[in-house]
Amino acid sequence: MKPISLHVRQILRTIAAVALAIVLTPQIAAAVEVVGEISKLSGSAKLERSGSSLEVVQAMQVAVGDKIRTGPNGQVSVTFHDGSKAELGESSTLTIDKYALSGSSRTSALLTLWGGHLHTIVSVIAGGPPAFEVHTPNSVAAVRGTDFETAFIEGRPCPEDRSCMRYTTVGVSRGVVEVSNPGNSAPAVRLTEGYETTIPCESPPTSPAPLGVEELGAPGYH
Amino acid sequence: MTRRVLIIPILTMVILIWSRTISSFAAPYSDFFTAANPQHFSLTAFASGIAAQSKYVATHQGFELEQTLSPYVGLVGRISAYQDYAGDGWDSPLNGHQSRPRNFGVMLAGVDLEPVQGTSLKLLGGSDVGDSDRARIEGDFSSWLWLHSRHPINFALTGDHFYNNGLSSGTIDIRTILTSSREATWLIGGGGQMWDGDGETHLMKEFGPDLGIVLREWKISVDIQAGYGNLGGYGTVAVSRHFGWDEQ
Prior knowledge:
The complex is a heterodimer. Chain A is elongated. By secondary structure, chain A is mainly β. The longest helix of chain A is centred in the N-terminal third of the chain and has 26 residues. The termini of chain A are far apart. Chain A has 1 helix and 17 strands. Chain B is globular and about 50 Å long. In chain B, strand 1 and strand 2 form a beta hairpin. Chain B has a 12-stranded antiparallel beta barrel with strand order 1-2-3-4-5-6-7-8-9-10-11-12. The chains are: A mainly beta, B mainly beta. Chains A and B meet through strand 17 of A and strand 1, strand 6, strand 7, strand 8 and strand 9 of B.
């Protein structure tokens, strides 16, 4: 039998490597479930994935499990494959805990805001359930609409209860959001367009108040 | 008469603060002397004008600085410039009539007390410089009632006394939030002015409806009021821009 030449061995090794790559690529892709990309970036931000920390750049892909941190002057927008958007404010931290897609349609999503500000614009298919939740350490905002803002503040007194040093505010620009505190058995508060609520520590959400009421004072006639 | 102008607003302020403090009794002022966390510094630039049908036109503009001390107390300073174009209106601390606009500056300083969320009482004192050059004192009260309701109500009062001519004046305003969005908040209500002293034989007053808008992203407020009173019809407009910084 004629021995296989060195040249042929090299060809066979290359074919084997390519085959292995073809077999393993879907598994690697499955491990990093890409669900959207960075569509806007200003200032600095980091993305933590599988224990490594990466500098966020424009058009970078984001996946389930990613944690995004913005710096003091950083702002990041993530556009998900279903068209929904998450705009993370300065000094904020967000994790994408779950984002299930069927084609370009979302079947469920769960984001957690660990600190800072998040503006969420949820894509909703007519007749379909929004299936979108934003959690903070002391609140759950279940989306029934499309456009709302969440902030989780830690280390500052809550305006509703100055003895409480961590609180969440949720404000709705469009649609309806149901807000509850998982640490409190009180029923969820239903927020409609133009209203906001505050969740101090383990207390239930406050009754809805018009957006921005805390910024208002007397008329300036003097 | 002058006393009545001042006593009614002061009594109302005290009753409102007292009633709201009782309702928030669960949060006593144990941290009254604790430094605010974070400290906050704000600057508000403002301009306003008032014109009455027969006797009075005035404009003024300036800025106000405020620095928090504790969660309930802030220090306030305000510098403004006034221009009076006609005689003996409610806000004129001047005697007699002159043909030219009378210009004077006002420098006030004092404290801002915020006993409960949405309630503020500013107590200011200072002096005029220019065509008016005597002391003045001022109190500004504002309280949001039923803050967590569909349409909270703001009750606001101001009271001033001008030592230049012994005139006292006050404003009153009651407004509610008509609607609010990410971009703007609309307010509607009514209010007016009262003044007495400086040769007036009786309490002068004028009242009318007002409309306000706050452009939330820009932190700009515009308030318009028009109505009728002892000087006939009148109109007033006020614009302000707020800037604020947390001190980490």
